[in-house]
Design goal:
Order of helices and strands: HHHHHEEHHHHH
Number of helices: 10
Low-confidence stretches: 1-21
Helix content: 55-70%
Structural class: mainly alpha
Distance between the termini: 62 Å
Shape: flat
Number of strands: 2
Length: 276
């Protein structure tokens, strides 16, 4: 009985890791061992810097940097492709709107729609920006646990010159958010599978039937969310948590030469992107 329970727990953790949003890919790599503060600052800065790409040279610089991170983190390329696939419709919309609704030199005239040279360039550039922003963002998620991310943000905010009295509350809220998102996604998938096993169809039938069938998922998810929130609040109260009090972490954040290298490389890459 104990082995069965342990197996179910392991399977649940494996399903949780496969969720695109907020997942962590465990590996023994240099990137995983970096300071969470360095990874948060570097990868967020790189994701934001990706939105300022304007040409081939700066795109190649960020691409080379991301390839280095990919090899050092030991995260399979397929994991990035899976996550990128989840935003395929957003990328498609970007391409369509830029390709067909940008004025300029006409390359292909289809009477109703026209493809222009400027539209093609804009579609390519915006797609590359979005892809790099997503890749650097999920690199942080793959190589850093939710608790480490929340702790690093709490440490960064705590170092700001402004007087922030609720830094610990911000860290706690962020930690709970990063933890709850994948849990709710996992619970939603389980409810959908259970409803499908009962014969509920979500794609077929009329519009009103599909809405009614969707309620069989929405209502249990809301109920489960409220129950988990209540259990979490009770657990925090039992542990003696008081809002506004500074929390101490058991994990000590250390600094290594690799942290300095990543931070300097990030600054050089972003500077090159801005200048070029």
């Amino acid at each position: 009985m104990g082995n069965t329970h342990q197996l179910c727990s392991l399977q649940g953790e494996r399903w949780l890791v496969e969720i695109p949003l907020g997942r962590f890919f465990p590996a023994d790599s240099i990137i995983h061992k970096l300071s969470p503060v360095v990874k948060t600052i570097s990868f967020v800065a790189l994701a934001v810097g990706s939105l300022f790409l304007s040409g081939i040279v700066d795109s190649l610089i960020l691409f080379s940097f991301w390839i280095s991170l990919l090899l050092l983190s030991k995260v399979p390329l397929g994991e990035y492709i899976k996550t990128l696939w989840t935003i395929k419709f957003l990328l498609l919309l970007i391409v369509i709107f830029q390709l067909f609704f940008t004025h300029g030199k006409v390359l292909l005239d289809m009477r109703i729609l026209r493809i222009t040279e400027e539209g093609l360039l804009n579609a390519t550039l915006l797609t590359v920006r979005m892809v790099f922003a997503v890749f650097f963002s999920i690199t942080l998620s793959y190589t850093t646990t939710p608790m480490e991310i929340s702790s690093s943000i709490e440490a960064i905010v705590g170092k700001l010159p402004m007087k922030t009295k609720r830094v610990s509350e911000l860290g706690m809220a962020l930690s709970l958010t990063l933890t709850f998102i994948p849990l709710l996604s996992l619970q939603t998938n389980r409810i959908i599978m259970a409803q499908k096993a009962r014969g509920v169809e979500f794609n077929g039938g009329s519009f009103f039937k599909r809405v009614r069938n969707s309620l069989s998922v929405v209502i249990p998810v809301i109920t489960t969310s409220l129950k988990k929130a209540q259990d979490t609040a009770s657990a925090l109260e039992i542990m003696g948590y008081e809002p506004g009090h500074t929390l101490r972490s058991l994990d000590k954040m250390s600094w290594s030469i690799n942290d300095s290298i990543i931070l300097i490389s990030t600054a050089v890459s972003i500077t090159a992107v801005v200048i070029l």
